[in-house]
Amino acid sequence: MGDLSRDELDGIYAFAVELGKQAGKMLTDAAQLRISGGSGSQKEQEHVQKENAVDLVTETDENVEAFIKGQIMEKYPSHKFVGEESYSKGTSRDYLINDDMTWCVDPLDGTVNYIHLFPMFCVSIAFIHKQKPLIGVIYAPFINQFFSSCAGRGAFLNETQQLPLVRTPVPALPSNAPSGCIFSCEWGKDRRDAPDSNLHRKIESFVNMAAEVGGRGGRGGMVHGVRSLGSATLDLAYVAMGAFDIWWEGGCWEWDVAAGIAILQEAGGLITTANPPEDPATAPIEEVRLGSRLYLAIRPAGPSSNETGRQGQERTVREVWRRVRNLDYSRPGA
Amino acid sequence: MGDLSRDELDGIYAFAVELGKQAGKMLTDAAQLRISGGSGSQKEQEHVQKENAVDLVTETDENVEAFIKGQIMEKYPSHKFVGEESYSKGTSRDYLINDDMTWCVDPLDGTVNYIHLFPMFCVSIAFIHKQKPLIGVIYAPFINQFFSSCAGRGAFLNETQQLPLVRTPVPALPSNAPSGCIFSCEWGKDRRDAPDSNLHRKIESFVNMAAEVGGRGGRGGMVHGVRSLGSATLDLAYVAMGAFDIWWEGGCWEWDVAAGIAILQEAGGLITTANPPEDPATAPIEEVRLGSRLYLAIRPAGPSSNETGRQGQERTVREVWRRVRNLDYSRPGA
């Protein structure tokens, strides 16, 4: 961790946890206003009615980011801040995270869910140093799921239950993965119907993962279940928990995944790129690049009788790569 | 309600609510054993490791059903009981619900989620009289979401928040629905790769709902989001809540949907058949047949300036029918 002491990091973690709780409360307070029809309800109602707008950003989103940024700048004025809202309003589309101590924040992930009051929305706060997410806080206040981690301290659900949840022992990945696995994926906002669009590449990949073994010209993965929550952040949290075995996605941004990556890695999970390399069977499995917009996450795994947990994870990565298409998302500077 | 008084029904409702709470606690207690590695953990672990078995039934499932059935038979010995587990073990595949007072119970919906400890699992308890689900109780204990309803008394989240959640006013359905809607659907267990299999009919329908407007030969629905939770029961609960606008599914059974239908209808939602009639634009929209295995649910909706809530729901049903394929599920006696 270089110029960052254990004590300093622990202090930042405690601060991030409190910040997450307060931001989560802002999200539920604003939702409650809409439910009970308070003074803010008409404006919120307009958002709900704003049809056909898949990329919808609420006022709450901006308020919560301003709050989080203000708290951080007051406590740690030397740290950098990268947030979804400020990025969207900026002129650069470059990847802005360097070796500095940086907070990477999504004040509201699962915006569409939040608009519709489906509980799978959350605040996501990551602290990054030397390009590595060291602290992650994810809070889904509507369902009281608070995920947090700090490098060297473990990852937790609601501050008490260590992740992954099943740990005596941590289950190995199935020997015939992806069969037996819960596969988490998202349809996303890119719905162009062109023949080789990301939508169709995704669908082809999803169907390969889902179809019976032997189907799809040998690509059928017969996963145990296919899940789509509408929140990349919570997808990652559930992979860290061990509830989802595999998450595969393209198109999201560093603030969607930074906290989730911190929590997943601290829990023992693996994360690499969504796009299969030229030789998926033998290519080295590299650590994810945070700004790559292409992610494949595998849950924490224990050993089986004939392989280590890491070997099981790598085997699962290769089995996924064999079944998915390359997605077309890029990023300047990443 | 014929030979059932208001007082009697209220008494049955209070009993059902308590029953749901106890059954939900049994589910979390059994999950906790697995997490902390108690005496039951090895057996449970075997279930987790039982790869490739999409239709997995746990011991807990059977225990909870036996408990619920026992409590009901003790309190109301004259009532009939239809449960997932007892049905599966019986010889008849017929639809068994008639005009008698009948409890229709799924002790554990979202079994795959439960195996993996993904929180979207629940107990589902319905009380049916003269073929109509009058009481519904759905409890997802891991995320503290308790849904309940009784005919004439309203539908509620956690016994205090009336459904749908946004009610001042209840929002109209978008004028260009399914655009602007959250579409909930499930991949299910039927993953045969034959050219016109249910898997491919579902996928074609999902893609029509998701693709950009103008895409898919004019069928593109550009829904706001596509969600798959792995629990038909919770899908319906979230439609009743107003969080999901549309749920479309084939293949589930009456115990998967009876409580959800009770709650949805009491909240003001509409439920009919998944399979489009010959003329989707003009065919009458009939009330769902409980045992039909084919369901299309639309959330509670308020009026807009030019149509009633019901008109908006029927318009949305027709827009969905225009985009989906017939599914091939049938049922003797339904």
TrEMBL record, chains A, B:
Q: Name one GO biological process term.
A: signal transduction
Positions of transmembrane segments: none
The alphabetical list of record keywords is:
Hydrolase, Magnesium, Metal-binding, Quinate metabolism
Which pathway does the database say it acts in? Polyol metabolism; myo-inositol biosynthesis; myo-inositol from D-glucose 6-phosphate: step 2/2
The protein's GO terms of the molecular function aspect are:
inositol monophosphate 1-phosphatase activity; metal ion binding
Q: Which cofactor does it need?
A: Mg(2+)
Q: What is its EC number?
A: 3.1.3.25
The catalysed reaction is:
a myo-inositol phosphate + H2O = myo-inositol + phosphate
Enzyme group, top EC level? hydrolase
Detail which positions bind Mg(2+). Answer: E84, D106, L108, D109, D256
Q: Does the keyword Ubl conjugation apply?
A: no
Family membership, please give it. Answer: Belongs to the inositol monophosphatase superfamily.
> What PANTHER family does the entry give?
INOSITOL MONOPHOSPHATASE, PROTEIN QUTG
Q: Which named protein is this? A: Inositol-1-monophosphatase
Native species of this protein? Cucurbitaria berberidis CBS 394.84
